[in-house]
Design goal:
Length: 270
Amino acid sequence: MADPVDSRTSGSRSFLGGVGDFLRGFRVWGTSPGLMALGAVPALIVGVVVLALLTLLALNLPVLTEWLTPFAQDWDELWRSSVRLAVAAALFVIAVLLAVSTFTALTLAVGDPFYERIWLGAERRLGSFDEPKELGFWPSLRRGIASGSRLVGLSVLLGIAVFALGLVPVVGGVLGFALGAVGGGWLIAAELLARPFDSRAIDSREQRRLRRRSTGRVLGFGVAVYVLFLLPFGALFATPAAVAGSAVLARRLLEHRVTGAGGGTSVRAS
């Protein structure tokens, strides 16, 4: 029996529940490996490009940092190094955030037709679902591009806050990365939940309300996806699993809407 979504559930338990929803998406690798492998192809193509750009930035980070801090040129070595180290850390943290968000947006846009099939397969396994009319390749691609553009735009705004926080001496880099993981994870989770919610004709306002009522669970799901995307080749396996896991997470949040905070039913993903 799975845990019901409950607003009274402790934050850590709710967060771990979201992580579990994501991990359940990996079960689809065992039942439909061919379909999941197709979903890994867009992730591989986009991942190579994004990783190459991130590596290029890392190699040129010292030069870029000096260019951004000409005012520190005549400072004492200690202060100059400290300021430039903070700027370099902030730049790299925001680059990682934007890299993950851009990767997610581009991968979901390019691979939307494949991910729609993965998501539908997960929904069928969960049962009791009125399947929407398939959009077809081009409408599906346009939908993916539109939602991906929204994700990148919001990530840029978040990146500004991450950059500012990253400039805090000593702890700025860590705090910036933490904010990036939490904020980026939330945005990724919202993006992945859009498909199962849209298919049920749930408007954007109601989607936001559902996410807010289960903030811990949504964060657990999104942060787990975000962190795994940072691992070498992790996104190849995680992207199709995240799409499948979003079906589980969406049903968890919908249980809360139907049953309220006082109870719930189980969701079984096989």
